[in-house]
Design brief:
By secondary structure, the chain is an all-beta fold. It has 2 domains: 37 residues, no CATH class; 100 residues, Immunoglobulin-like, CATH 2.60.40.2080. The chain has no helices and 8 strands. Strands 3-8-5 form a 3-stranded antiparallel beta sheet, with no helix packed on it. A 3-stranded antiparallel beta sheet has the order 4-7-6, with no helix packed on it.
Length: 143
């Protein structure tokens, strides 16, 4: 089933209507610009990661004496259950934390060193912030 095509630039076209369920067009054109649904099967993986002060190597709970203004990072490898065919797009989002109230809450989570097989989740804090736990979700999308 094909979409209608705009005859004049700027003309809005809509896909032909069908009464059959599941009979949808593969593309549409809005303002003369075609939009396509790719034939590439996209893989979507996601999960939740919880880290805390008992996690091996955790260094975000206490700033070292005399180095309260230093940036502290903790990195964890996240390995995909199944590899992607090429490097995916990875989105991370902080959804929980336990931070001491004595100082400002400072916490950043980023995805770095992304490959077809894994990525590094890097948590960063600085100044006097004491981070006892952090939880984040991640989503990877790619072919």
């Amino acid at each position: 089933m094909e979409c209608g095509r705009a005859g004049v630039k700027g003309e809005l076209t809509t896909p032909p209507r069908s009464n059959k369920q599941g009979d949808r067009p593969k593309c549409c054109s809005i303002y003369g610009v075609p939009m396509f649904s790719s034939a590439v099967p996209w893989k979507v993986l996601s999960s939740n990661v919880s880290l805390n002060a008992v996690t091996e190597g955790w260094n975000l709970a206490e700033p070292e004496a005399g180095a309260e203004e230093e940036i502290r990072t903790f990195s964890v490898s996240v390995i995909f259950d199944a590899p992607f065919f090429s490097v995916p797009v990875v989105q991370v989002g902080l959804n929980g934390f336990d931070i001491d109230q004595r100082d400002s809450a400072r916490l950043i989570v980023k995805a770095e060193a992304i490959t077809e097989f894994s990525f590094q989740a890097v948590l960063t804090t600085w100044a006097g912030s004491r981070v006892y736990a952090a939880e984040f979700n991640w989503l990877a999308i790619g072919p």
